[in-house]
Amino acid sequence: MNQNNNANNKGKIRSILVVAVIVALVAACAVLAAKFAPQISDEESADIIKGADSSYQQSEKGFPLSFSSNDIVTVSSVGSYVYVVSNEVLFGVSSSGKLSFSEVINYSEPVIKTAGNYALVFDRMSGKFVLCRKNRVIFKGQSADSQQIITACVAANGNYAVASRSKEAACLLTYYKKNGEMLYQWECSRDHIVSIAVSPNSKSLACAALSAQAGEIVTNVYLLDIYSDETEWEYTVRDCAAINISFASGSRKLDLLCNSKRILLDSSSDSVESENRYPSDLLDSYSDPNGYAVTLTRKFGAMNTYELTCYYPDNSVCYVFETEKKVTDVFCAGKKSYILTHDSIICVSSSGKESKTIPLSSSSLGLCVSGGNIYHYSLNNLYKH
């Protein structure tokens, strides 16, 4: 275990006091959630699973799927498997609509992250998580000291990293093998971690954290070698608050998605290689595992027009697509992107042209794409196109 004490589904932050109050409120909520969260016995878990499985209904054509007694919080996919996440139960469903597994989680605030054949589902409040590989759960765990999870990520090989609150510092970043064995731990004394990523070779971690300097919120970026006690690289980006960080190419370049711009950082030259500032406030975004990303903003001077910008892994703009329909969610798979509106799914080709529009009979909450299949979900139903 290496330790390093560091001194350090979305407009500009102006007040440090507001940030401090938010952090304090989140911490207080975590304490209350941990104190009053119900403990579920094996017998109760069996009853929940029985009820959840009975609430799952498959239509004659496979889809849509109904989850009548479980409100869907989010949906994601790995290969041919789809994960349907509710507060009580995690469902694994095949692309044909068959139920592969169901796992009681009882999470207050569930989040899912995917890479390769793995999915990491965690609860921000309780600090609990489960690691899945395709159609089964392979590991269950909890954050260090059972603290609230701020964010987490999973690598294509199943290793995963968890950033949690800490009793000794502002945040604690812990890196594990897929079997739960701890590989690395790093304390962040003052900064508040918002996003982490694992390098393609699984030997480095990237971390984006927020801190206050000279009356403004800045983003501090750290590159961490899991075999060293020292921070490999540090860089401060001003005038923005980070949302997501990822490795752009190898283990030296980092894509940083912020509230006001998207930046490509090169740790080898200790510099910003490129920067793209949004025309207006960021409304939504998505980054795929291969480094492609989309951002959603309103067109400057035309507030009823939405702009979806697709980026290459090197941060250059692939295309900009416009729509006047109100957008609910966005997704990308490489250069292809998908826009969920109140009554349709707009499919955008790799050249930035509308390839097709799928009409919807009712509104949906979100979407994801995997294996050529487009999935979207409402509160109790999962659809496929």
Tag the structure with descriptive keywords.
2 helices, disordered N terminus, five-stranded mixed beta sheet, 385 residues
Proportion in β-strands? over 45%
What's the β-strand tally?
A: 34
* Alpha-beta classification: mainly beta
Mean pLDDT over the residues? 86
- Evaluate the radius of gyration: 21 Å
What about the largest sheet?
Answer: 5 strands, mixed
**What is the rounded distance between the termini?**
46 Å
Strand order of the largest sheet: 1-15-14-13-12
Measured as a percent range, the helix fraction is under 10%
Instruction: Report low-confidence residues grouped into runs of 5 or more.
Output: 1-40, 45-51
Structure explained in plain terms:
By secondary structure, this protein is mostly beta strands. Helix content is 9%, strand content 55%. It is built from two helices and 34 strands. The protein has helices at residues 16-36, 42-55, and strands spanning 5-6, 56-58, 65-67, 72-78, 81-86, 89-94, 99-104, 110-115, 118-123, 128-133, 136-142, 149-154, 160-165, 171-176, 182-188, 192-198, 204-213, 216-225, 231-237, 242-249, 253-258, 261-266, 271-277, 284-287, 293-299, 302-311, 317-323, 327-333, 336-341, 344-348, 354-359, 366-370, 373-377, 381-384. The strands form eight sheets. It has a five-stranded mixed sheet with strand order 1-15-14-13-12, with no helix packed on it. A hairpin with a 2-residue loop joins strand 8 and strand 9. It starts with a strand and ends with a strand. Mean pLDDT is 86; it is low at 1-40 and 45-51.
